[in-house]
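Re: Re: token formats

Sure, here are both.
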Amino acid sequence: MCVFGEIDCRVHVLRQAEKYGGDFRPVIDGITSNYLEFLQYVSRENPVYVWGPVASQNDSVEIDTTYPRYGAEVERNKATEYFNDRMKEICREHGFKFFSIFSSLIDSNYRTKYEYIADTCHLSQRAWEFVTEEFRKQGIDIAFMPEDKRPSPNKSGRGLWRRIRGRLSSYKPVLRYYFRKLLC
């Protein structure tokens, strides 16, 4: 499962759009086109799943250099919606599965619903209901993981991260190539 686009939508898209005319759609079209190239490479040997970015941080939250942002919350959420729509379309065209709970995390005015945010930036456990529903819609039963083994806010998940990192290490040269390409 590939998870990308959140930092693009939170920081880079609106900044780049401002430099090049104001419309974020062409910026996102370029980013998603680059991601497609990466997904096609990965799909040669693996089934591909894509997780779309979630709703953006509230404007009233003090800016933290750890999680920078650019532009207004509503505009970031509109850019995120477009990003998710483009990725969903790309995934449908190429036979990849796309998952997103974005629409459950915003109101009709494109404001983030903060009852689903844990720490001004990350999802809370309350959002789990949307995650399980999204997976079920895609025909994936997430009950494969026993209740006592599921991640909780108090568990670090470091063992799982080590296993994932080990699997990804074979993709490092490819990932490096695509990330450099995305940044150029």
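Second one below.
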Amino acid sequence: MAAAEQHYILTRPAFDAPVKIAIVVAPYYKDIADNLIAGASAEIEAAGGTYEIVEVPGALEVPTAIGIAERMSNFDGYVALGCVIRGETTHYDTVCNDSSRAIQLLGLQGLCIGNGILTVENRAQAEVRADPADQNKGGGAAAAALHLIALGRKWGGQRKGVGFMPAPDEFKLAGELKDNPTA
């Protein structure tokens, strides 16, 4: 039984500069979404961060909204929230798999995303997982985003010369002069 399990939780990261996060939520099950938001916002505030809540129609739209926000705004990271409860059709599998895969792909592109989209068999499971006083999956998703932001800030300025790096300007100029003696 998952409730009896004890899990290790990383220490909350500290930040020298403020953190701004977009909480992107699909409030299809409004009460569950509200609990996820409560957990996520409390975690962000505890780390000294700020947040903006963005609502979208469903879990499949969460990754798209994150992608748009990344291109058109200035957030440090994202918290994806929502709930998908198994129904009678395979739509559940599509929504769970595709939303999760899209969030993972955005993360692999360098976005700092905590995935708090619940994928459950029934409402009772969702209620326990969303409750900030119980499993607090919204807070866990925010903590994941904060940890990824901290890693990005830690490693963001470091360059080790691995991979392709453009030639220094003095080499470019010398090559241009050799190739075009009239320059």
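The two ends are 75 Å apart (CA to CA). DSSP finds six helices and four strands in the chain.
- S.
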